[in-house]
C-alpha cells in the first residue's frame, strides 16, 4: 500500500516540477522551495540546528500557522534550549511563518514520499513532530514512528464535510492514527469523531482550541487613527474590512458597499482576498465596476490616499490583523460561498464586531460561541447590506459586540497550556 502511495506521490511531484521551474524562470520564485520539498537543502541552511534538540512543527497554510503562534510561544518558553522548526505546504503560510520571531528555521514541507521524508528526518533530527490541525501525512507518520520520534496532533478537528469521507477509509486510516503518541482535539465532538475513526482512547485528549489563545502583540497598542493613517485610509469615514474573501464573495460584498454608499453612508472598504495571488483578478473586477481603488503594494505612505467610496485592495500577506484594527466593522469571507469559513476570532481579538455567512463548517463551534456571546452575526448573502447598515448606524452596539468577542477569547483560553503539558510528558519519557 505504501509503495503504491509513494508512486502516486512521485508522479504528482514530477508533474509539478515543470510548473515550479516555469515560475522560477518567470519570476525567480520557488528555487529553494522546490529543492526543500524533496528534502534537499542549500549549504548552511540547517546550521542553526547544529548541536541543539529540535522541535518540528508543521502547519499547512496561513490559518494553521496563525493558530499555532500561541503554541509556538508556549513551547519556546517551556523549552528555550530547543530549536523550533516550522514547515508549511503553501507559500503564503511560509511567508507568515517567517515573521514569527520564536521560530528558528522555516522550511517547506517535503512531498510525502518515503525517501524524501526520511531524508528530512535524518537532517533535521527532531525530538518530536507536532502537526497542527488534521494534517495526516501517512509517510511522515510511518517514518517518524520507525525512527522512534513521537508524533503529536494538536488543535485537531474533524469537520462535518471531512468526517463522512474519513469514515469510508477508516480501515486504512486507523493504523495511521494509532502511530500518533497523542491526539489533542479541539472539542468533545472532534474527540468522539477521531475515536470513531479508530484512534486509541488512551491517546486522545480534548485540549480546546488554540485560536482562543491568540495575542495581538504590537497591534493592540496601536490606535485606529494611527493604523488608518499608515494605510492612507480616511479619518472621517467609516471603514469596512472584508477579510479572507473568495471568488463569488467579492461581488456580494461590493454590491452591499454600493448600496450602503447609495444610502448616504460615508464608507471606505478594505478588501483582502484570502489568496493574494488573486489580487490581479479582483483588481480587474474593481476596475470593471468603476471603483476607485488602490493596491496595498502601491501605497506611497501619504496620508489620505483614499477617501469615502474608495477601496484598498490588499495584495500582501500577514497584514490582515493590523487592518482589522482600522475597521469599524469586519466581514470574514469563505462563509458566503461553500468554502467552510475562516477564523472570526481575529476580529474579536481587536474588539471588532464581525459578520459571516452560513458556510462555517470548519469553524462550527467558534461560530456558535461568537453568535451566542453577541460578538457577531451569522447572515445570509441577502442580509449583508441590511445588517451592515444596522451596525454602522449604531456605534454603541458595535462597541458592545467587539467587547463581547474579546471577553469570549479570555473565557475559553487555556488550550496552549494543556497542549504544552502533553508535549512535555512525551519529551520527558
Question: What is the gist of this entry?
Answer:
The protein is α/β, with parallel strands linked by helices. It has helices at 2-27, 31-36, 62-78, 91-97, 114-124, 138-146, 162-168, 170-177, 188-196, 224-230, 249-262, 279-288, 320-324, 345-349, 364-373, 384-392, 395-411, 415-428, and strands spanning 54-58, 83-88, 105-108, 128-132, 151-156, 182-185, 204-206, 238-245, 267-273, 293-295, 311-313, 329-332, 354-356, 376-378. It has a 7-stranded parallel β-sheet with strand order 3-2-1-4-5-6-7, with helices on both faces. It has a 7-stranded parallel β-sheet with strand order 10-11-9-8-12-13-14.
Describe this entry's structure for a reader:
The chain is an alpha/beta fold and 429 residues long. It folds into two domains: 24-208 and 414-428, Rossmann fold; 224-411, Rossmann fold. It is 45% helix and 15% strand. It has a seven-stranded parallel beta sheet with strand order 3-2-1-4-5-6-7, with helices on both faces. The chain has a seven-stranded parallel beta sheet with strand order 10-11-9-8-12-13-14. The chain is globular, with a radius of gyration of 22 Å. The relative contact order is 0.10. The model has no long low-confidence stretch (mean pLDDT 93).
Amino acid at each position: 500500500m505504501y509503495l503504491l502511495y509513494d508512486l502516486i506521490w512521485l508522479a504528482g511531484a514530477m508533474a509539478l516540477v515543470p510548473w515550479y521551474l516555469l515560475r522560477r524562470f518567470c519570476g525567480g520564485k520557488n528555487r529553494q522551495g522546490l529543492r526543500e520539498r524533496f528534502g534537499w537543502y542549500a549549504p548552511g541552511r540547517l546550521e542553526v540546528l547544529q548541536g541543539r534538540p529540535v522541535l518540528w512543527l508543521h502547519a499547512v497554510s496561513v490559518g494553521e500557522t496563525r493558530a499555532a503562534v500561541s503554541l509556538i510561544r508556549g513551547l519556546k518558553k517551556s523549552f528555550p534550549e530547543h530549536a523550533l522548526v516550522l514547515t508549511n505546504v503553501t507559500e503564503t503560510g511560509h511567508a507568515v511563518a517567517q515573521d514569527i520571531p520564536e521560530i528558528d528555521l522555516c522550511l517547506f514541507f517535503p512531498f510525502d514520499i518515503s525517501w524524501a521524508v526520511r531524508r528530512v528526518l535524518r537532517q533535521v533530527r527532531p525530538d518530536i513532530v507536532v502537526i497542527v490541525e488534521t494534517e495526516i501525512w501517512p509517510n511522515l507518520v510511518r517514518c517518524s514512528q520507525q525512527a522512534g520520534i513521537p508524533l503529536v496532533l494538536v488543535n485537531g478537528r474533524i469537520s462535518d464535510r471531512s468526517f463522512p469521507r474519513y469514515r469510508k477509509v477508516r480501515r486504512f486510516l486507523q493504523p495511521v492514527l494509532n502511530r500518533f503518541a497523542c491526539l489533542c482535539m479541539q472539542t468533545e465532538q472532534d474527540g468522539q469523531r477521531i475515536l470513531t475513526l479508530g484512534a486509541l482512547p488512551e491517546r486522545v485528549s480534548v485540549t480546546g482550541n488554540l485560536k482562543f489563545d491568540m495575542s495581538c502583540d504590537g497591534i493592540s497598542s496601536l490606535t485606529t487613527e494611527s493604523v488608518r493613517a499608515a494605510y492612507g485610509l480616511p479619518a472621517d469615514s467609516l471603514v469596512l474590512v472584508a477579510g479572507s474573501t473568495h471568488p463569488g464573495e467579492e461581488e456580494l460584498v461590493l454590491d452591499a458597499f454600493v448600496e450602503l454608499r447609495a444610502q448616504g453612508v460615508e464608507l471606505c472598504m478594505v478588501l483582502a482576498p484570502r489568496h493574494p495571488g488573486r489580487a490581479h483578478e479582483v483588481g480587474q473586477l474593481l476596475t470593471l465596476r468603476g471603483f476607485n481603488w488602490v493596491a496595498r503594494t502601491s501605497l506611497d505612505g501619504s496620508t489620505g490616499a483614499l477617501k469615502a467610496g474608495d477601496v484598498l485592495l490588499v495584495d500582501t500577506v500577514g497584514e490582515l490583523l493590523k487592518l482589522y484594527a482600522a475597521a469599524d466593522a469586519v466581514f470574514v469571507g469563505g462563509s458566503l460561498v461553500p468554502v467552510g469559513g475562516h477564523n472570526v476570532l481575529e476580529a474579536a481579538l481587536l474588539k471588532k464586531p464581525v459578520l459571516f455567512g452560513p458556510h462555517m463548517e470548519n469553524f462550527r463551534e467558534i461560530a456558535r460561541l461568537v453568535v451566542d456571546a453577541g460578538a457577531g452575526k451569522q447572515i445570509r448573502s441577502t442580509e449583508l447590506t441590511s445588517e451592515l447598515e444596522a451596525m454602522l448606524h449604531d456605534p454603541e452596539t458595535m462597541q458592545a459586540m467587539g467587547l463581547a468577542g474579546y471577553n469570549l477569547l479570555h473565557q475559553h483560553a487555556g488550550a496552549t497550556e494543556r497542549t504544552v503539558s502533553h508535549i512535555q510528558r512525551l519529551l520527558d519519557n
